[in-house]
Amino acid sequence: MRPAGRAPQQVRPLTLTRHYTKHAEGSVLV
């Protein structure tokens, strides 16, 4: 068991935020 309570095979939730910065092409926040 990991400190966050996740099982070893369980992945963290993942979100992608498109257009994170206004002027950088292909900007993404992971």
From TrEMBL:
Supply the EC number(s).
2.7.7.56
Q: Which InterPro entries match?
A: PNPase/RNase_PH_dom_sf, Ribosomal_Su5_D2-typ_SF
**Annotated region described as Disordered, given as residue ranges:** 1-30
Q: What enzyme class is recorded for this protein?
A: transferase
Keywords recorded for this protein, A-Z: Nucleotidyltransferase, Transferase
The Swiss-Prot or TrEMBL record annotates one GO molecular function as: tRNA nucleotidyltransferase activity
Question: Highest taxon of the source?
Answer: Bacteria
Q: What is this protein called?
A: Ribonuclease PH
